[in-house]
Amino acid sequence: MNVQLGLKENWPQFVLLVIVNMLVGGMVGLERTVVPLVGTAEFHIDSGIIIFSFIIAFGVVKACTNLVSGVLADRYTRKKVLILGWIIGLPVPFILAYGPSWNWIIAANILLGISQGFTWSMTVNMKIDLVGPKKRGFAMGLNEAAGYGAVGLTALLTGYLAAHYGLRPAPFYIGIFYTIAGFMLSIWVVKDTRAFAQLESTQVSKASEATPTPNLWWTFKEASFKNKNLRAVAQAGLINNLNDGMSWGVFPLLFITMSVGVEGVGWIKAVYPVVWGVGQIITGPLADKIGRKPLIVAGMFVQVLGHIVIGMKIFPPLQAGLVGSVFLGVGTAMVYPALLAAVSDAAHPNWRASALGVYRFWRDMGYAIGALMAGIVAHFFGLMMAVHIAGALTFLSGVVVWGSLKEDWTKQKH
């Protein structure tokens, strides 16, 4: 195989991986609108913590899987880990459609978390491998645009199906197509990209190349605590997904109580990830041009505006949900590819997959923390208070990045 770095040189595989990640994202979109409503309407659960338990299970498992996915990819190849992720995800849509109790829904989310940790991580790493250092922001923008665009469109579609055919099983049938198509493409068409990472590792400076490849514990400490810049990136990723975890569980229940119909909730749940996804087509390349820090800081503050619009009831409920979700989507689009690119800037290709796994561990732990926070706060103070607290934490996170992240570090070039 002729190994050359660059998007132009590898565009067929890059486009294929974009399509695969759309299928990966679609699997998460299955749950955005319908599953919280299944808990209240079908299983008659009235505890916010229990309702949000499926998000907590998903977030914790996905975060931990992210952590080991890079190590497995470096050891067994990216393609093998991608295929494993699809195999684990095959039962998920069937369990969501026909599971007889809430425990089955939680079990499906454990499998989904493992599947997402492997499949999404590999599409990230494989695109980074292919394009080389100059187009990382662009690559991450397209990757996340495909994934989260599919999340939003699937959330909208499941809301429509639920409104017309009931909460189960019809909305989950499309997940069967997603898993089979993703599995078959990964086996028969996707090619492994580890050779591209190995090529890049030979092109970095001799000083960096002489450094022994660190183990996962070293990488975890460096990316989580010791390096001031990486620490700032990790906390921003966590708070960003705390917003997503909170909205995942809170928004369907909140807007239903405000007399918004199921189809309207589907639109609210779709706008956030669709704007988030499509926006990254612009913000990914922008991160390569102006640096990572401006987008991260501004993006966190734009998300705060989304919380204000929803929490202050400036508009009628449906309009507030849609406008607030647009702000949340724009803000997230600004930070997502910039954060991934910033981590990739700092890591040697020999341990970049592991560093991205550590970052994505903290980022996706935000799902669980956001859902747990929302469940506890909603139980004692109501659903709207969870929105207010998430907004305050997002503001503080932006301030931390503003004060901690060094601009010259975020703009460094290999």
Automatic annotation (TrEMBL):
Gene Ontology CC terms, in alphabetical order: plasma membrane
DNA repair as UniProt keyword: no
Single GO term (MF): transmembrane transporter activity
Origin organism lineage: Bacteria, Pseudomonadati, Bacteroidota, Chitinophagia, Chitinophagales
Major facilitator superfamily (MFS) profile domain location: 13-409
Membrane topology value: Multi-pass membrane protein
InterPro entries membership: MFS, MFS_dom, MFS_trans_sf, MFS_Transporters, Sugar_transporter_CS
Listed SUPFAM superfamilies: MFS general substrate transporter (SSF103473)
Name the record gives this protein: Putative MFS family arabinose efflux permease
Organism from which the protein derives: Chitinophaga skermanii
TM ranges: 12-30, 50-69, 81-98, 104-124, 145-166, 172-190, 295-315, 321-343, 364-381, 387-405
Cited Pfam families: MFS_1
